[in-house]
Every structure is written in structure tokens, then in C-alpha cells.
Amino acid sequence: MAESRAVGQRVRRIDAPQKLTGQERFTGDLRVPGLLIARPVTSPYAHARVRSIDSSTALDVPGVVRVLTSDDLSIARDAAGAPVKAPIASGEAVYAGQFVALVLAETDAAAQDGVAAVEVDYEPLPVVATLDEGLDPNAPHIRETRQQANEEEAAMHNADAAVQAEENDEFVAPNVSNSVHFARGDVAAGFAAADEIVELTVESLTVHQGYLEPQVCLVDIEPLGDLTVYTSTQAAFYCRTRVAETVGMPTQRVNVVPMPVGGGFGGKFVLIEPMVAAAALAVGRPVLLRYSRMDDFLAGNPAPDCRITVKLGATKAGEITALESRLVFDTGSSGGSPLQIAAILLGGYYRFPNLELRGHEVLTNKPGAGAYRAPGAQQATFAIESAVDELARKLGFDPLEFRLRNCAVEGDERPNGGAWPRIGLKECLEALKDHPAWREREGARAKGRGVGIAVGGWPGGIEPATAVCRLDSNGKLTVVLGSVDLTGTNTAFAQIAAETFNMTADDIAVTTAPTDAAPFAGGTGGSKITYTVGKAVQRAAEDALKQILAVASEALEASTDDLELVDGAVRVRGVPGSAISLKDIASRTMGFAARNEPVYGTGSTAIRESAPGFAAHLVEVEVDDVTGETRPVRYVAVQDVGFAINPAEVEAQIHGGVVQGLGWALYEGMVYDSDGQLLTATLMDYALPRAEMAPAIETVLVEVPSEHGAYGAKGIGEPPAIPGAAAVANAIRDLTGARLTSLPIRPEQVARALWDATSAPAAD
Amino acid sequence: MAESRAVGQRVRRIDAPQKLTGQERFTGDLRVPGLLIARPVTSPYAHARVRSIDSSTALDVPGVVRVLTSDDLSIARDAAGAPVKAPIASGEAVYAGQFVALVLAETDAAAQDGVAAVEVDYEPLPVVATLDEGLDPNAPHIRETRQQANEEEAAMHNADAAVQAEENDEFVAPNVSNSVHFARGDVAAGFAAADEIVELTVESLTVHQGYLEPQVCLVDIEPLGDLTVYTSTQAAFYCRTRVAETVGMPTQRVNVVPMPVGGGFGGKFVLIEPMVAAAALAVGRPVLLRYSRMDDFLAGNPAPDCRITVKLGATKAGEITALESRLVFDTGSSGGSPLQIAAILLGGYYRFPNLELRGHEVLTNKPGAGAYRAPGAQQATFAIESAVDELARKLGFDPLEFRLRNCAVEGDERPNGGAWPRIGLKECLEALKDHPAWREREGARAKGRGVGIAVGGWPGGIEPATAVCRLDSNGKLTVVLGSVDLTGTNTAFAQIAAETFNMTADDIAVTTAPTDAAPFAGGTGGSKITYTVGKAVQRAAEDALKQILAVASEALEASTDDLELVDGAVRVRGVPGSAISLKDIASRTMGFAARNEPVYGTGSTAIRESAPGFAAHLVEVEVDDVTGETRPVRYVAVQDVGFAINPAEVEAQIHGGVVQGLGWALYEGMVYDSDGQLLTATLMDYALPRAEMAPAIETVLVEVPSEHGAYGAKGIGEPPAIPGAAAVANAIRDLTGARLTSLPIRPEQVARALWDATSAPAAD
């Protein structure tokens, strides 16, 4: 790529100027005529029957227009009448903070006053507050109405289902909403062949995505009741489908305008949009709902807490012989935890000749779990990478060598049966092995630091996409897309298109269009936008170039084979002066009586093979042996990115992921009490890592090109957020001998472990 | 087309429900945060130097934010410093009503008060008020600054230009801004060969497009100063280019959102948008300018007044031998009258073996002329069709037979050299000849009615276009376009796409997208949208169908040749049960891990041959011989439409055109006094035809298919507005013997002519 003017270059993000200068216009900044502000009335109980809602006083508050309950909303419901996938209760609140009504008012202040004036009569019900309660076969269902429905159904089926489940060796409890089971080989024989076995259980708390901009959505009512949904979403088309289905309108009558997203990290696929749409329809006026920070903690869709037990055996020679694991995810009040992907990753980083993985997802009276950048991967990786590290130590193996010896490569089988395609895990480990931070780790240790490493990987998503590349009247090009730009993808797309035209990214405009006009693209998540849409952009640009050359060929009376595009003009190779500018080509294709078709390149992809991305991280930590405070002081993030379209963006992505990983490792956790009350509903209580908590981060980009991505690019979003917690735990272990297994690793835990260690022999 | 489910059907217009129920959202209904309302300070003089503008009192008006003059606007200027194509004066007002300043205020009322408080010191200058003054070689230039520039230039060139023009037999006067000259054969010889010669001079006044919704534009300021232009425009992409060029920004930083248009008729290509954009940039806030009705009369862009002399000769056998004509158009204060097209049409309807056409466009101190549905055609047709009619009568020929004998057919030459392609003029005349209204014309005459006929034609515009046809998640299709729907074109496009999919138009959504995302299409004008974009839609639908069948082929394991699309599903011919719905196809092409590319059909056109459209009209009139009032009582409009995609829409178009033609014939005219002051600046003074003035209108659709348009369709917008004035004049002549030559034909003129006729022998 030595001659590249665009891809591989460090290019400033297209969206940087308006964001850095505070000029970006977010959803919450919008106003439309007739707008009503919505504020929620929230349940103070984690589980309660809503006996009655008295809105009369609230409606007397000047400016309050309506108080809506779920009965007023024309939205999809489940068999028990509860709204599907909308954070509003119907007769029964199933988590503390769930909405039981929406007050719509002319102003925010009036809405707030209205909320205070709504009187709700609750009857508290038993709460399923913890993962263990969720597993309890004797616990009530988290939803009383569902429990009744279940019992009726069970009676109808004569309890056949439970009997059958038992015969199949399945675990049955009222709140188990999903189970997975992957097995391969003979686990018992595998452990029998092991010289050393490690078994440990890790836990992690609920973690919030921590985006700067809370959930926000404005739904405008168009003529005839059509809806325009302005929202901070990662997935415009998915949101459109969900809103249309929820309110029961044809898809074509809903237009989603994807607004700039102030952070998503998986938490902004769809949450409040269908409910706000239904509210707008109910009153026939536009409605804006802006979550407060507390709303977002109480009624968001955070990453689930979980508990994972890992048993791992290996021979003295360092060959892993067996893996057994049990995973339990607390999915909150609605299913959809990343149980399956966690299990697949847990059993996927290494060659496990024998493995058995069992997992369960349980419902509790908490907000429903959502996706979080690399959903399930943080938890699974913390478990397996703690165990692998511990096993290497027990065997006396260098932890990096032990990983290199066992790590998965192309063709190795994943727990769910499919083989890995070409992946860069081994290359990342080898790059880390060569890195000064690893080679000189003894020097760090001599300075009183622990050195921990961990790997992490993400299978990578796939989803079809179309992109458009259009020549504009001034001879510049515009790429039109349906994908939301969370992390600079539009900048990368400008680079990809520019490369085709032998230009710089500055010459390319990129439009993310509303769903009524955009070419389809999937949601921005799963590390798939650059991988899938990028190739579509490349094809669209190539298609546009072909059309441009055809027009130039006619104008210059030369074969397209003899043409080249240089400095914004098509010229005949070797014939100076025989050239036509892109602006002149534009004028031949647009304008009254112009004679050539407009240049409108399109490209689509339906890549059927994902491009998994791997990372190997190293962290040096210092631990205050009195307070137990852990301080990461050096961080090396090695990642296989396939090809870095924009190295500056890739590194920024890695930096952000590393800091989120440190949040998981050391700071972040949503704590609920035994009544299901959230104790950490503000940023005073919930600790997000701040800039000064982040160590210097060194990035190493490994480029094992993907077969399908543009210029070899792979998804890069998820992997850097994965290994952090395990790397930190392994570094603490390296320094102190203590194996910390509960995330986040708070100073008091470390202090306790150090204290315990002084009264017992060290583990190695 | 017997099996068609879509094209050729009478389909309700997509936009009818929101318009008929008053729910449509027009530009003037929009509000955005921080919006300022603009109101103009207008010149009371048709020509004046602006010595000074004192805004101090206006700025004291509560709510007034800024008073902008052209000096504050960063817009393109000509050599003399005057803003190009913006209705705001720079130092010199050149028509009464021209803006000299814009008051920007928080409310409309404050802006109005501000306008009243701005003090402008004018120095009146000589006014060029009429066409004759415009022709005067000794008149001053309408623009003092230009006059100075011209004089300087003339001095520099040593008056060479004038000398050369004189040698070329060109007419030179300071305010002549354009001239045309077409000649063919030997005109003198032609007249010598004629047995009868008619010479007459017709005149018409300035006519306003008379749209319901006055000019309106809202420009919003996006982050970094990018512009979003919400406007009632017929031509989004053209408007974008013009705004960008005017304010000096890259095209990509201007996004034009084409709003529903409350009538355009040629008057809404671009007028106020660049100025409003410059105003918004000057204050850094969004600005809305809504013309009042009076603003629109004073500072719009109406159809120009003109004078046309026609001399026409023919043999006794009814063969036209020669045509000579002189056309003068008063283009107001900026060039761009339809002089050339008028000349081409005037000399194009018939085979003229010898012709000479000379035309001039003159500047006057009036608003600049704009396009009006069939620009130039009304005036030219009134002239030639009056002369042809008169000549036929003088020769004792049936006027219809005379026209049939001489009318142009495919291959006949036009004044500008090109030959007519296949046209339906003759077919229209033949259809009219067969119509009961013509066959039984003696019956009408016996009832005291005059029967007049006239033809009219429009060359038809061409402009490249691209269209998109996309499969949505619910299995329905969306057509995405850049063309503005003035008259139901989006409904026709839904029909065209539906036809390809064997559906009805209800199954197709149509989006007119903003310029930042839309495929290119030209402005909606020149009767070219259905003709050019329609074919692009057809191709896009066919492309989408091909993609759909490819997915179905894989899913059904059948060759695409064996597949058919019926009732929203692709099925294998002759294999009942082997089918896949479009919704299932959609799910295979969109969604996480879907395996096929999204269905995104595109189609482009660059049709190089226009599809001229012709009409033949018949009107029966009654004339009150005391008051002179003319009342049309029956109207037949025959038109070659190529193929009527939606006959109901086509007929509605024809109805509207006929009534506009009657406006030209009998009612409409903007009257200026000798100081250039408009005397008809309200709808109390300017007479638009009202519903009760319209006779019953019978339409006859002739279908001479075009080679290029979808299903043979041609442009149909312009032709029905063309023949009306001539048909009415010919009917009055038929009834009374009086030849009325000045539009509109007011009762007092008719009464005068009748009075004159009683004191002189009748003309035939």
C-alpha cells in the first residue's frame, strides 16, 4: 500500500470538528412544533402489582397534557398482556425503576411536577433479586402474571414438559429462560490424563455501557400519522422494524433518522423508541423522552452479572486435556443475555480436545440485560484466562508460552462445531512475546510491579449491506449509507472510496441517510460495520469509477483501458492535455439536456464468513499493600486488525476498549440489595474510569488480512474491550500471589486477599 | 396492457389524503430552535439609487435581531457588484418591490414592525417601464451601475461591438439582452406565391404562476455552518448547486430538503433560497422567509409580457407558403425570457417552407421573468394560432382541415434545424375532427355560440436521472428518488414499479429524498419527470426484480427462468407450494447473519431525444353583446400523452392546464403603470379563474407511444396550458367576427370590437 493516498493513512475523523467544538446536534437538542416532553413515573419496588394509578392531581399541574399508562399505548404485548420489549409495566412492575406511567407536558419542569403528582397504589410482591434466587427451583417467577400463565400451561400439558426436561438432564427452574450445552470428546478421560487441574469460579457484577449521552428519542407525527423517529440508535433499520411492529404500522410509514450517537457500546440498539412512538401516537403530538443519568441506570439495558466455574486440566508438557465449565448469566427481567456467545468464546480460544460447557440464563427482578461491547466476552474471558494463567503457573510454564502452545489457529474447532477461519490469535501472542514490555518483564517486577497477560477474541458479526457512491455536480463524490457511525466508520469509508478514485478522504462526503432513503446496512455492533459495509463501499466506488470512465471514454474518444483518474480528472495515459475533470463529467451527466446517465455506483455485500478479531494484552500493575488499591501503570494492547484503514482511528478504538476493560477489571459494577434496589444509580456511586486512572497505552497492530474485508480489514471494535479484566487479575496474581475472581476487583478485596495470604502459604 | 394491475389504471394520488385533509406539512409550517423570521424592506420605486439605509430605529424594536442589506450577505455578485439571481438590491433598486434589506426578528410581528422602522433614503432614477421603452435605442439602461460599466466597456472597445452588430443587421439598444434569428428558404418568394396573406400583432401581459403557496424557504444552520435548505422548490439538486455557488460553499455542505410544493408551475426553480441561505449564514441562526401574496406579485418571477407580429401566407389550395414573425419579450430586470423556445414553437407547428423569425428580449424595470408552465408557448401559440385561423377563414377553409393539411409530422424541420421526432399533432387534430363537439359545431352556433379551435405543443425536456427500488424488511418495496412530485409523478412511479412486480401501486412506497442522499434527478419542469425518471424507475424495478429472483432461485433451488412473482411471492411455475414470500426474501437479505445481498435495484436514464407533446383544444363560447363578457361553456381537450400511466392523473393535469389557459385568455394580467408600479398586487386586482368560471372539460387521450418513456409515456404537463388563449380568441372570432389580439381578452375589449364592427363591414 506504499502508493496509497487514502487507506492506511492517519486521517482526522470527519465528525471530529463538530464534536470537539461542541457544535454537534444530538437528539436531545431537537425541537419540533407541538413537542411534548415525557418523564416517567417509576416503580419504587423491584416487583409489585400496580393496583391503580391516579393521574387527576398530575393533570391539574399547569403544562401537563396527558398521563399515559401502558393501557393507553397501542403496542405489541405478550400472552400475559405485558408490553414486549418496552420499559413500561402493565399492571405489574418487574424491576425497581421500571416505568408505570409517562407524564407528557409542554415543558420538562411541568413533566417533572406531573410525575411527582401521580399517585400509584402498589402491592409489593416477592422479589427474585440474585442469580442464586433465579436458579432456585422453588422461587416464584419474576412475573406474577407469567407465573399464572405458566401454571395454567403446565396444567394443560400435564407437566409433560418438566418431566421431559428432567429426562434430558436439563436444569429446570421457573426463572431459567435459556440454556446451552456444548460437549466434545470425553471430559472425564481428559481430566484423567491431566497432570494438573485448576478449578475456579469467577463472578462479575452488572456493568453499564456508560455512554456519555443517556437514552433519548424524539418521535414526530407526520401527516396521516406517519412517524419520524429521531433517535440515538446504533441500528436505524432494526429500530424501524421494531417500532413499526410494536405500534402495528407498515414499515414504510415509519422513518428512523439516525442521529449522532453520544456513545452506544451495544446499549443503543432499541430500547425506548417503540414506547415513545406509541406515546406520540396516543396523543397525536410529537414526544421527546430524554433519560436522566439515573433513568439510564435504573431502566437501561446493562451487561448482565454472571458466575462462571471453570475446570481445566493439562499435562506436564503443557497440553490442555480438558475443559469443563458452568456459566450462569443473570439476564434481569427479560431474556437475551449473551450466554451462548460467552460459552463459545470460553471454549474457543484454545484447542480443547475434550470439553463440556453448560450454561443457564436466569430471570431476576432487574432491568433486562442488553449488549455491551463484546457481550459475554468480558465475562467468559475473565474466567478462561484466569484459569489458563493459573494452570500455567501451577505447571511452571511461562504463561505466554503456555498460551502459544495451546492457542486456536485456523481450522481448530469451536464449541458449537464450526472451525475457526484464519485468525490472528497466535500472531498477536507472538507480537506480544517480542514486545519490550514482555521481554523486560523482570525489570518491571524488580520495580515492584506485577505483569499480567490475557488474550481475548470476538467472532465478528456479519450482515448484508449496500452502499452508494454518487458523483456530485461539483465533481466530488458522496457515499450514502444506512449504517450509523459510532466510532469513525464514516471516515474509514471516505478513505476506502477515496482510494478507488486516487484521492484523499477529504474529497469524499459521507451521508448516513434516514431509513426511508438509505441503502440497507445492519446495526453498528458486533464489529461488523467496517468489515461488511466497507467492502460494499469499495464496490460502490469501483462501480462509480467504471461509470465515470465510461463517460470520459465517450468525451475523450479513448478506450477506458487507456484512461486513468489523477488529481480529480480522467486523462488518457501518455497523452498530456487529453483530460476531462470530474466536474466536467458531472456536467455531462446532470443538468438540463445532459447526455449521459448520472454516476451512481452501488455495491452490496453478503459476506458469509465472519472475520474474528483477537487481541493479546499486557498490563503492569502496582498494588498498595495497605489499601489494596491496584494501579495499572503500563498497558500494551496487541491486536490483529486485518488491515488498519485508518491507524489513528484503530488505535483510538483500542485505547477506548482498554479503558473500558480496566473499568470492568477495577471499577465498574451495579450493586443491587436483596430487595432488588439499585444502590449505584448515579455516577457518584458507580465508578467509571477517569482519564487519570488510565495508564499509558501502547498499541501494536498485527495485520493478518481478512479474505473478505476491504483491503483486508476486520472488525476491530470489540476485541480491545475483552482481555482487560483477566490481564489485571493475572498481573495482581503475578505480583501478590493472590487470585482475585470477583469483578470489579476492589481495593478491599485485594487487601483482604493480601491479609489472608500473610496467614496462609502462598499459592505457588 | 389488458393484464396490467398497475400502469394504465386510475389510481388515487399517494399525496391526496394528507393534502385533502389539510394535514400536509409545508415549508411554512416548519419551526426549528433559534429560528428567525425574515421580512423584506422593499423599494417603492421601480428604479432608484439607495443612498443610505438607517436601521437604528428598527433595531430598537423588541424582537428585531438584525437588519441585513446586501452588503451583509456573502453571495455571488456580478461585475457591477449586484447580487446575481437574488431578489435583493445592492445600492440600486431596479424594480418596485425589490428588496433593499431584510429584517430578521424573533417573531413575524416584530419583523413587520422592524420593516416599518427601517428608513431608506432613495434617489429616484429614470424608469424603463414598457416593452417599447426597452426597445428604445436612446433609453437609459435599466441599471445605472451597468450603464456605467457598459459605457466604460464601449469606450474601451471603441464602439466596435455596436458597429459590428449593425453590419450584421442586428438590432442594438441598451436594454436588449438577447436576440434570436431563424430563417429558412426565401420568405419574399413565399409570400409572392401566396394567394392570401394575413398579418397581425398580438400582445399579452405579464402573468403570474398563481400558485396557492407563495415562495417560502427555511434555511437551518447545521454544526460547522453547513446548511439545510427546506424549500418549496421544483428542483432540489439545481437549488442545491445554486445555493452552494451563491454562498461560496462546497456543494456537499448544502443539503436541500424538497418540501411538498403548494403549486409551482415553473415559478419555483430557485428564487429566494440563496438569499435566505446567505442571511442565515450572516446571523448564524436559522432563517425563514415566507412571501406574502403581495411579495409574490411584486418580487416573484412571473411570465413575461410580449408582443408578436405574424405574417402568414398560403395558396388557395390551402398550402402555407411563408411565415415571417417578430417577437419581443419583456424579460424584466434580469435576462432569461423564453424568447427562443417561443420562436421555435411559433415556427414549428406547421410545415413552413419559407420562414424568418426575429426576436428580441428587452430589460425593463420590473421583476425578472421566470418560467411559467410551457414558457413562451402560450404567447407564441396565441400569435400563430390566431394567424392560422384567420388565414383559413380568409381562404374559406375549414380551420381544422387547414391545420390538418399543414401540420408538422415526424421528420418535418423545426426553425432551429432539428426535425420533429414522431409526434401526435396530426392524430390530435384527427381525434378532434371526430369529436361530437366538432362534428356538431353548427348546432352550437345555432345556439349562439362561437366554436374555436387551436393546437399547441411542447418540445419536452430531457435530463438524466437515477432511481432506486429497494426491498424493505416487510416484503414491500420503496422507490427512492431525487425528483420533486408536483403533480402526482410519485403515484405514477409507484404504478410503474408495481407493474414490474405484478402488484398494485399500494404496495410501493415512494420517497423523495434530500439532496445529500437522493439519486440525481432534474428539476420538475419541462414535462420531463414522468418521461425521464419514469424510465429510470422502471429499470430500477427490473433490476430489483432480477435480484429478488436470484435470491428466490437459491432458496427454491430452481432456475430463475422458472420463477414468477405473483401476489407478493416468488413461486416455481407449475409447482404449487414451491414458493417464497417477498418478506422471507427480505429476511434472507437483511438482518444479522443473513446470507444474501440486500435487494437494491437502480436504474438510470440519459434519454437523448425528447418526446414532444401536442394538444388540440376546442372551446365553445358565449359572448354578452352588451357587456362584452365572454363565457366558455364547453371545452374539449385532446392530447397525445404517449401512454397514460394513470389516466385519472393525466386528465386532472389537463383540467388544470385548460383552466390556466382560460386564465391567460380571459382574466390574468399584471398591469404596471408608466412608473413601473404594479397596479395588480393582490388577488382582488389580479383575476385568477375560479371554479365557477370553468366550463365542463372533456378530455380525449391520444396515445402515440414514445420510444423512450416508460410504457410509451410522454411528458404531459405543459401542452394542456398552451392552446387556450388562441382557442378562445378564435371562438370569439367565430361568433362575432372580431379578432381579439390582446391578452387577457377583457369584456371592454370585446365590447369595443363589437361596437366597432357595427360601424364597419365585417371581416368575412
**If interface size is counted as residues with C-beta under 8 Å from the partner's C-beta, which chains form the largest one?**
A-B, 63 and 63 residues
Question: What is the CATH level 1 assignment of the largest domain in chain A?
Answer: Alpha Beta
- Gross morphology of chain A is globular
What is the makeup of the main sheet of chain A?
A: 7 strands, mixed
Question: What Rg of chain A, in angstroms, do the CA atoms define?
Answer: 28 Å
What is the helix tally of chain A?
22
Give unreliable regions of chain A as ranges. none
Q: What is the strand arrangement across the widest sheet of chain A?
A: 3-5-1-12-9-10-11
Overall pLDDT score of chain A:
94
Strand runs of chain A, count = 27
Q: Level of helix content of chain A?
A: 25-40%
From the 3D structure, determine the CATH topology of the largest domain in chain A.
Answer: Aldehyde Oxidoreductase, domain 4
Assess the beta-strand content of chain A as a share of residues: 15-25%
Global structural class of chain A:
alpha+beta
Straight-line N-to-C gap of chain A? 49 Å
Our count of domains of chain A comes out at 4
The quaternary state of the protein chains shown equals homodimer
- From the coordinates shown, what is the CATH architecture of the largest domain in chain A? 2-Layer Sandwich
CATH superfamily of the largest domain in chain A: Aldehyde oxidase/xanthine dehydrogenase, molybdopterin binding domain
